Amino acid sequence: EKISSYFQDTPSLLWSYDHFLEVMRPLIIKEICSAELSSIWRKRWLKMLKALKEKEDDEALCKLLTLLSNQLRRGVVPLLLQESRLRRGAVPLGVAEPWDDSYGGAVPPWIPSKQTVSTTKFWKKVTQEKNQLNAEEKLRHRRSVFKVNSQVDALDVLEAARTQQTVLLTSELGTVQEQEQNTSEVIQANENDPGTSEPSVLLLLREKRKRDGDEEVLMDILGNDLECSDPMSIICLEHIRNHPNVDVVDLRMKSKFFKQLSIETAEDYHHDMEAETDTLIPDNVHNFLVNFFSQELSEVEWLNKIDDLQCPNNDDKLLVAMTRIIRRTLPQFVKAFSLGAFNPLLDITTIERPHLNAYVHPCLEATLWNVARINYEFGEIPSRNHVKRECADGVGYITGADKFQLVYVEGSKPMAREDKEVADAEKISKNLKKIFSKIVIETIKNRRRLPEDLAVFGGQSFRLRIHLFYLNYCGKYCLHEVDNSNLPRDFSEMADFVCFYESIIKWALLIDKMVIGFKNARYEKRPSRLSYASLKDQHVIPHL
Questions:
Q1: Which of 96, 98, 115, 208 is most deeply packed, by most CB within 10 A?
Q2: Contact indicator for 191, 197 with CB cutoff of 8 Å
Q3: How many Cβ atoms from other residues are within 10 Å of residue 33's Cβ?
Q4: Residues 126-155: pLDDT tens digits?
């Protein structure tokens, strides 16, 4: 089939024995391992030429086949002599008549015989390639055998090490009475938490170490002991044991790691996050939003209502900020809702930048400025704070003396692909980690103190939903989701603005808390020279 396809797919003017051998090289290497067997392929070539000649009615093509066949059967003159004969108009060897004019006067390609230099070089090269393949196959076989033997030896060593470790751990537990007491405690703990998969010997040892005050502890970014909540300690220690090569503990609800946590641990973590974020919105602000967006008004009435909106209490800074945010951002949504079928929030063809610049970035800009005095810029923003100077859709900087970047935002169009969400989440976590380490390094260089509970903040707009995060350090970098909400799309969803504005205000209030932390850290006493000088010996600076 391969030989037949050569004559079908190759133009007749290119038919030649050398060209035929080059096309068949993969088959030749697999089948023939020495140049002495090259005659097999010569016979195949001649046999195929004969079969084609018997079937062919074209007289000119039959003459070409006769020429190709005779040139391999006879001992022919060298290539240069034959070409000179053709250039002088002489009749090619093996052909009784001059070349037919149906080929446009073109001289057919010269096919060297088995005695020519090119054919000899070809078979020599094929033999070398075949020998090289055989040598590589032998090497792969030796490596596989060595690998299998090494794995068997490694398993034996591992089994011996486990046995020795078990003996050492058991001896460390102390007396038999203490072991029995620890065993009963572990059995009771396993009954309360049947999901545990840790070996009982390690559990016993951990219980003893806790009683001796030698339990595992988490460290902050500078290598100091860190006190975390119980759920965070459990999560971080589990991540360190099971994923030692992963830098970021992804605690978003959609992440694979978070889905693998036990129900009890996940519930405790959610309880701590709700206690931290849900209490940020006072009741008077929530009631103000509910009363305002529960009204059923027309387009013109909504715009007039926004223009006439006044803060009910000018002494409440958050309520004043909320009023300014609504007056700055809501008219753009109302105008879009009034377009009906041409509403860009309902148009699947809306591209990314106009969507983000019209509806997402203005809300973040107004909220961050009025709540936290963060200067938010949007567009394709490159920065040295980003990995490989990647461009961000939005960035936010402190306007105080520090000028640190605290905010990094990525977005997408309303009908983005699913893989865009995963790619943006990975990009956000990498760049937040880079921003975090930059802040730590700059603070160390200036010999100032870091703010308590240092964190940087990220945002992701995927389709019509906004996800808001922050990243801190608890033994490892930890990515937390503050809140998420949908962008309202028409007048029937005006009540959804309550959740939308509350989610971005929660996020901005956490950022404001961090800005205040930076301001307070500037007034604290400078750390000693040795406190930061020792970090290099502890491999903290290279880690950053």
A1: 208
A2: no
A3: 15
A4: 777 777 777 777 777 777 777 766 666 666
d(CA 500, CA 469): 15
DSSP 27-74: HHHHH--SGGGGHHHHHHHHHHHHHHHHH---HHHHHHHHHHHHHHHS
Q: Which of 46, 16, 21 is nearest to 31 (CA)?
A: 21
Instruction: Work out the angle between the directed axes of helices 283-293 and 317-337 (0-180°, nearest 10).
Output: 20
Question: How far is Cα 97 from Cα 34, in angstroms, rounded to an integer?
Answer: 39
Helices (H) and strands (E) in the chain, counts: 21, 9
| Pairwise CA distance, residues 420 & 239, whole Å | 26
DSSP symbols for 197-215: -S-HHHHHHHHHHHHTT--
User: How many degrees, rounded to 5, is the angle at CA 525 between CA 223 and CA 473?
Assistant: 30
Predicted structure pTM score: 0.59
CB-based burial, 333-352: b 16+ in 10 Å, e otherwise: bbebbbeeeebbbbeeebee
326's tokens = 């609504």
Distance CA 197, CA 31 (A): 55
Q: How far apart are CA 36 and CA 43, in angstroms?
A: 13
Select from 195, 202, 188 the least CA-distant residue to 241. 202
**Tokens at residue 289, please?**
């939003």
Q: Under DSSP, is residue 381 helix (H, G, I), strand (E, B) or coil?
A: strand
Distance CA 409, CA 476 (A): 22
User: What is the signed CA dihedral for 493, 495, 497, 502, rounded to 10 degrees?
Assistant: -150
Of 50, 449, 401, nearest in space to 221 by CA: 449
User: In terms of C-beta distances under 8 Å and separation of at least 24 residues, what long-range contacts does 46-54 make, across chains too?
Assistant: 46/72, 46/73, 48/3, 48/4, 48/7, 52/7
Element (H, E) at 17: helix 17-23
HEC assignment per residue over 336-354: HHCCHHHCCCCCCCCCHHH
Residues 6+ apart with CB under 8 A from 251: 235, 257, 258, 269, 478, 479, 480, 481
Mind listing the pLDDT tens digit for each residue in 362-404? 999 999 999 999 999 998 888 777 887 788 889 999 987 778 9
